## 1
Amino acid sequence: MKPAPFRYVAARALDEALQLKAAHGEEARFLAGGQSLVPTMNFRLSQPALLIDINPLTELAGMRKCGLDRVRIGALTRYRELERDPAVAPILPLVDEALPHIAHPQIRNRTTIGGNLAHADPASEMPAIILALGGRLRAQSVKGERWIAAADFFTGALSTALEPDEMLVEVELPTAPSRSGACFMEMARRHGDFALVGVACMLRLDEDGRCGEARIGLCNAGDTPMFAAQASQSLVGGKLGAAEIGTAAALVQRDIDPPGNIHASKEFQRHLAGVLTARALAAANERARRAH
Amino acid sequence: MHTETHAITVTVNGTPYRRSVEARTLLSDFLRHDLLLAGTHIGCEHGVCGACTVIFDGLAVRSCLMFAAQADGHSIVTVEGLAADRHHLHPLQQAMRDCHGLQCGYCTPGILMTMKAFLDETPAPDEARIREALSGNLCRCTGYQHIVDAVKLAADRMRG
């Protein structure tokens, strides 16, 4: 229960951190909040040779508006800060609703959004949310920077499209459009546990009350956080009544491949995904109508 | 693998300490073994139980999920730093005693530090907020009810 020996460097500048990562590649890991990495090191499931502590790089923290309809959140922004920022709920209602479900207060005091996303746990909430919102992520290395669409970022369980020399430095999310509603719901054995299944959805209504846009993301429903493309598409143009919502929930159940674990069988996870999808869509629809 | 050490300066319970630590030394082990502040308990060492909670720059954190090297230049309060002096318990400690908020006591230091940070931020919490704040600390003896009672009592007393 103690980490294997490693080298530790507290980065004084982003350039220094990126140069170290370029030099050491997969042997090195960035240390942000450490709330997922350090447990794996304590269990010796991961034994990085070098830890590059990026906590001193405060320029990577904070949220800022980007144009009229997007917001950028620095990778080192801690969930504690997002939870207490009154600007979050109106523009990122999905994030606001999901935050209290993410582990416990002491963990959220340290957890960073960048670390949580780069860890890419399929059971984790935020990856499903940025998929549902259709966000994108900025990766930086000594060679330059690139944007990666959320849909291309999660490549497998605990695996991302980040190259060994890259750091995730920023996340960009669309803010809630008018006439929209969002809902995050999950089922966990105890509050703060990883979800057995979680659903994040966003609906935007057209002026005639029909569905203009629908996006459904799921956590712990497969090897990666999932965007339910067909279920989302099935709602567009429709009235969002019980029948339409039921169809979307059935498509989610058809399209997911839940892993099953000792707490929930595949069948139970599939059942839950359908129930939660239907409930979350109904709630999001109600909120969208009220917002109107 | 060579063993490298880092010189750190850290303030714990108001006292500055200078020590040399191995990179892999967990903050929890540093507090217990290097500073001999064994009031910080170690339960699970993977961030689940909350027994090792300390206050790091004003915020409750798991000391088993940080390295001592990360504490360089920072300020920590442990359970040893709660009471003003050895003759007077902190209001939270007194309320835990009055309400029978502990039995075996193993989880108590972590709960006290979590609740200290919580009440600093939320001086007049309702029961739901107390339970949410307590959700990251496991207690296998009490069933939590008396802990919740103690936090309510402490909050009342601390507000005067």
## 2
Amino acid sequence: MKIDVRRNILEANQELALQNREFFQKNKVLVVNIMAAPGAGKTSTILKTVDLLRKKLRFLVIEGDIASRIDAEKMESRGIPVVQINTGHMCHLDANMIKGALSKFTYGADNILFIENVGNLVCPAEFSLGEGLNIVISSVPEGHDKPYKYPGVYLKADAVILNKMDTLGSIDFEKDSFYEGIKALHADLPIFEVSCKTGEGFTEWGEWLLGKYRENFPQTML
Amino acid sequence: MHELSVTEGLIKIIVDEAEKRNIRKISRINLVIGDLASIVDDSVQFYYDILSKGTAAEGAVLFFKRVAPAFACQQCHAVFEKKSYGYRCPECGGKSIILEKGQEFYIESIEVETDED
């Protein structure tokens, strides 16, 4: 006998992600899930963004790594509240891990929580965390073919940051091809060209992020 | 790469369905998985065989119905499977596409042994 089931295999994660989302809305936290390959500049981008906006917003960070506290220590050294999650064998963060970290922070008036996902362009795309924004960071040295090789993560993105623009002249990176791949999937997706090294492009990204905070929490005094 | 956690979730749902319906033994589980959902069938089966031991789902055959990604051109509305490097529409060369299918990730049905069988 055949019985129709029609249930999403990841439904338990989806349910927890919804609960996290409600918690974040209530506590005025815009959660930004940062997904990228290892070495794309996730930590550096977070640090630059915090430097730029910390007078306006309160920043919190969850660091997801297979092992080590290297990135968490970088946050701590700048006085940024951080929770390190070591996933062990797991290739991504999931909603349950985020739920476990929520009570470790205190929340102020206007909060942005960066979740630095495990460096990986595949698995993080499939597990919702309760985030408000999904940001993919690509970097010039990774090459222009990533939107074609990993459509899933780009389909999930609300914006793409193209980092390490300072290396453009010395690396074989076809910017038109990179843009075409992303725009094919998402005609209107914002792409921010930045360099964590020189600081270029961060003003535009910061303004966009601030705008998103205001959009999510219109009652803010910001 | 995350087959272990996916398989744990899968078995939880299957056991829940079995309890809800008073099913003693599930013989087959039909899954629909888009090719853009990044799991490896053999790996899920491997974990499944270990994790399902002692449950109503033990020994069930996992059947993976794979769905190839298909895109629809926003210009001429042709639906195509991506064969080449780029995303351009093979019909009109359009550069803007919508993903039609390929991200499915669900349990379609289960097959059970009943007393009447």
